Amino acid sequence: MFAYIVRRLLFAVPILIGVNLITFALFFMVNTPDDMARAQLGAKQTTPEMIQAWKVDHGYDKPLFFNTESAGLSKISETLFVEQSLKLFVFDFGQSDSGRQISADIYERMWPSLAIALPTFIIGLVTNIALALLIVLFRGSVLDTATMMVAVAIMSISGLFYIIAGQVLFSKIWHWVPISGYESGWEGLKFLILPVLIGVFAGLGSGIRWYRSLFLEEINKDYVRTARAKGLSEIKVLFAHVLQNGLLPILTGVVVVIPTLFMGSLIMESFFGIPGLGSYTIDAINAQDFSIVKSMVFLGSVLYIIGLILTDISYTYFDPRVRLQ
Amino acid sequence: MLNEFGLQSVLRRGFYSVIFVMLFVLSGCESGLWNQPYSAQQVQSPTLFSSFSEPPKHLDPVVSYSSNEAAILGQIYEPPLQYHYLKRPYELEPLTLTQMPQVRYLDAQGKVLDEKAETSNIAFSEYHLSLKPGIRYQPHPAFVKKADGAQKYLHLSPTQLAPINTLSDFGETASRELVAEDYVYAIKRMGLRQNHSPILDTMNHYIVGLQEFSDEVSLAYQSESSESADSFDFDLNDYRIKGVQVVDKYNFIIRIEGRYPQFQYWLAMNFFAPIPWEVERFYNQAGLVEKNLTLDTAPVGTGPYMLAENNPNKRMRLLANPNFHEDYYPDSGLAEGADPVLLKDAGKRLPLIKEVVYSLEKENVPLWNKFLQGYYDASGVSSDSFDQAVSVNASGGMQLTDEMRQKNIQFLNVIQPTIMYLGFNMADPVVGGYSEKQQKLRQALSIAINYEEYISIFLNGRGVAAQGPIPPGIAGFIEGKDGINPYVHEWRNGSAQRQSLETAKQLLAEAGYPGGKMRDGTSLTLYFDTPATGPDSKSMLSWYRKQFEKLGIELVIRATDYNRFQDKVRGAKAQMFVWGWNADYPDPENFLFLLYGGNAAIHTNGAGINSANYDNPQFNALFEQIKTMQNSAERLRLIRQMLDIVRQDAPWVWGFYPKSLALYHGWYHNVWPNPLANNTIKYKRIDAEQRYAKQNQWNQPVVWPLLILVLVLLGSVYPLVRAYRARQGSVIVPDSKQRGEG
C-alpha cells in the first residue's frame, strides 16, 4: 500500500503543475499586473510611478512565462510563473498582495469553517443514513412515498431560502438563537446550531434519495435473504448487513470531501457571519489578489488528491476484496 | 443487538440527547436571551455595537484611503487637525495642536510676504504647527524600555518571538509623549515609495523636497532589501526632507510650494497622523510579520480608542485609550436647524463610549434583523428593507414607518458630499467637442436623461438631481433658483423642474440630429460603456436605453469588466460612462479639478482625474485662479463663472448627489452627520440601561413552537414502532396456487 500511496503522490505533481498553470493563465488573461496594482493601491489617482513601484515590490514586474532579458535557465526561472509557483510546492504561500500572511490567514480561518462543516457533515451523514434505512424499512408504504415527495421538494428549493427562512423563523420570530455571529469555544455553540441544522436539512433531500437507492439495491440480494432466513430482525438485517455492504459506494462520495471540509461554505458563512475560509478565494478574485487565488486553488487541489487517496485506502478496510498495489 | 425494542430505545435516547444539548446551549445564554450575540457584561456597559460589510485591508495611516478603514483609523490616530463636530459649513479646528497652523508666505529668496501678497509672488507657504504638550500614546510593547534606556522589544530573536501570537503576549506595555518628530516621521514614511502611499505623488507636488527625499530613500531601501533576504532595519531618521523641519519637541514646520490653502484639509486626514519610529521598527521584526502583526494590522495612536481585537473577517474591537488626553464635548457651534439636545453633553470629557464592537455582516438580512432586535445600535437602510423602514409621501419627503416609530428608532437623511455623473468623452468626435452644435447635443441628452426618475426608481428617493459639479455643503453650491442649471432645469412652483422633452428634441434638431436621425436618415447611435454586467444591472441599463430612445437615439451598451472599463476611460476610448467622486475635503477645488484640462486623462497618459477629458481654456484659467484662493466673495464669483461655462458645455450629465439614510435607536445619543470627519465616535453616547431593557423586551424566546416540535417528534415514534411491529409480525400467506388448491 505504501508504494501505491507514494506513486499516487508522485502522480499528483504534474497534476498540480497543470492546475497551477491553468490558474495562472486564466487569472492573467483577465487581469494584468497593472490592473492588480490599481486594485490594491486603491488610490483615486493612480500614477504610473505608483503602479511600477507596486509591481516591483510584489514581483509582478517580471514577464509571465519567458524572460528574454535573462540568459540561460534564467529565461525560465526569472519569470512570474516560476517565481509564483515554486514555493507552493513546499507550502510556502507567502504574503497576499495586500500584505497579509496567507498561511496565518488560512490557519485562523479554517477553524470556524471546520466548526460548521464538520458537525454538518457528521450529523448530516448519520441523519441521511438513518432516515434512508428507516425508509427502506418501510419501503413501498405510504411513509416511503411521502418521504420521497418531501425529499424532492427539499432538493428543489434553493439553499438560500432555508438560510433566510431559518434566520427569520428561529432567530427573528421565535428568538431561539442569534441570527449571525461566531465565537470560539463552548460559548460559540449557540451560533452554530442554526447553520448546522440548516446545512443538515438542506442536504436531506438528496442524501435520503441517494442512500435509499443504494440500500434498496442491497436489500434483495441473497445474503440479505439468508440473514432473514436465519431469523434476524429486520433492524439487525438493515444495520448489520445492508448498511455494511452499502457503505462502499457511500465512501466514494464521502471520504473525498473530508479533507476539503475546512475550505468552508461561501453562502452559509456569509449569511451567518462565520469568519471562515468560504469567501477567502472569492474575495481574493474580486480584489484581484493572485497570491491568495493561486494558494487556495493549489491547496484545494492538494486536498482533493488527498481525499481521493483516502477513498482508495478506505476501500481496503471496508471491502476485503480490494487490495492496493 | 437491535430489535424493535432497541429502536424505541434509540429514539428515546436521541430525544433526551436533543433536549440535553438544547438545555446545555440555552444555559450558556448569560443574559437570559437565547438570541443575544454578545456577553451580558458588554451589553450592560457603554459599548457601541456596529457592523462592517467589507473587511478593512489597510490600517496603516499612510496607506489607507478607504472610508471603511478611515472609520476605524479615525478613532485611533490623531492628525494635527479635525473637523468641528457640530459646525456647518464644515470647519477645521486643532486636534493635537495648540492653535490652527500659522502660515507664512515667502518669496523665492525666502523673504516673508504679506498674507495678501499676489499668488504669483509667493514661492513657498510655511505651515508652523505647535503640539499640545502631554499627549501620550496608547500602551504598547514598542515603548517598553530596558534599564539602559534602549527599547526592550525591538531586536528580539526568532526564538524569543516564536511564542508571541498577539501583542498581549508581550509581558509589558508602556507609553510615551507625542512629539513633533512623530509627525515628521509619518511624512517620511509617506515618501518611501515601498509603502505605497496613495497620496505620495500628489504631495510630491506640494511639500518642498519630498520628491527628492522619496527618490533617494526609496532607492536606498530597494538596495538594502535586495541585499537582505529577511527583514532589515531601515532607519528613515537617517534621511531628511528639505521642506519638513522639526523646530523643537513640540514644534515643526512644513514648507509648501507656492500657495495651497487646501493643504490644511490634508492635515485633517490619516496620512498625516503621527507614527513613532520605535513602533515601525518594532513591527519590522520578521517573527511578527509572519503572524500578521504589523503596523497595517495593529495601529498605535494617541486617539480616544485603541484597537484591542483585529480579525477583519469577524470582528474589530476598540477600547477606550487609558492615556487619551483631555478632550471635551463642544459647548457651541450648533448648526442652524440642529436639535439643541446635541449640546446636552457639552463640556463632558471624551470619549463617552468605552468600547466599540464592529462585527462583520456581509449580508443585509441578518444586519437589518439584528438592528431591529436591538443588537446593533445603528444601521443603514438597504433597498430590501426600505419599505419597512421609511415611507415616502407625495411630495417626496421621507418619514419613518409606524413600526420604526414604535421602537423609538430615529433617522438621519443626509446629502453626501459626492456626485455621480454621466460623463461624455470630450475627445469623441460625436458626443465631444466644443462647437455650439456639439454643446446642444449634450444639453439635449442632459434634459432627456431624467435623473429625478432614476433617483425615484433605483434609489428609493435617496438622492438629489445635481445642478452642477459641486454638491450641497461645499462652498460654491448655491441653493434655490439661483443655483439651478438653466440648460437642463427651470424654476417652476418653487422648485427646480427638468425642462420638457420638447426642448430637448428642439436642441437635438439644432445639433443636426432632428428626431434622432443623422443626415443619411439613419438613427444616431451612441455607446455607453459600463462595468455593470450582473443581472441586477439589467433594469438600470434598460432604463438608460429608454432615456435615449425618447429622443430617437439608439444606445448601445458596452458592458465589460471593471479593468477593461477603466482602461477604456483612461485611454479616452469610451464615449459615455457613469462615474462618481467623493469629496476629500470641503473645498470646491476638490470637485472643479475633475474638469480641469491639466488633469485630463488624455493629457496625462491616463493618470488624470478628468475622465471626460474636458479642456476649456477659459475654465482652466479660472480654475488656476480659484485653486489658490481662500473662500471669499470674489472666489465665489469666479466659481459661478466656472459653473456657467461647464453647464453650457455640459461635459457631464450632472447626475445626482446621493443621500445616505441612517437609522439609530433611541438609546444612541449625539448622532449628527459629518461625512468628512472620521473621529466622531468619541462624541457619541449610549444609554446601556435603556438598551438592555429594550433588548429584553423585544427578544423573549417564544417557547410554544419548541413544545409542539417535541410533541410531534414524540407522537411520530409510536405509529412508527407500531407499523414496524405489524410488519415484523406479519405472515406470508401463500396464495391458492402455491398451496396447490384448485
Short description:
The complex is a heterodimer of chains A (about 325) and B (about 750). Chain A has about 325 residues and is mostly helical. Chain A has helices spanning about 1-30, 35-40, 50-60, 75, 80-85, 100-135, 140-155, 160-175, 190-220, 220-230, 235-255, 265-270, 280-285, 290-320.
Distance between the ends of chain A = 6 Å
- Assigned CATH superfamily of the largest domain in chain A: MetI-like
Note the quaternary state here.
heterodimer
Give the CATH class of the largest domain in chain B: Alpha Beta
Verbal overview:
The complex is a heterodimer of chains A (325) and B (742). Helix content of chain A is 70%, strand content 0%. In chain A, α9 (189-219) crosses α11. With 325 residues, chain A is mainly α. The longest helix of chain A has 36 residues, at 102-137. Chain A has helices spanning 2-30, 33-41, 48-58, 74-77, 80-86, 102-137, 142-156, 159-173, 189-219, 222-229, 234-254, 266-272, 280-286, 290-318. Chain A starts with a helix and ends in a 7-residue tail after the last helix. Chain A is globular. Chain A contains 14 helices and no strands. Chain A has two domains: 2-90, no CATH class; 111-318, MetI-like fold (Orthogonal Bundle). The model of chain A has no long low-confidence stretch (mean pLDDT 90). Chain B folds into three domains: 4-34 and 701-726; 56-314, Dipeptide-binding Protein, domain 1; 418-660, Roll (Dipeptide-binding Protein, domain 3). Chain B is of the alpha+beta class and 742 residues long. Classes of the chains: A mainly alpha (325), B alpha+beta (742). At the A-B interface, α2, α3, α6, α8 and α9 of A face α1, α6, α11 and α23 of B.
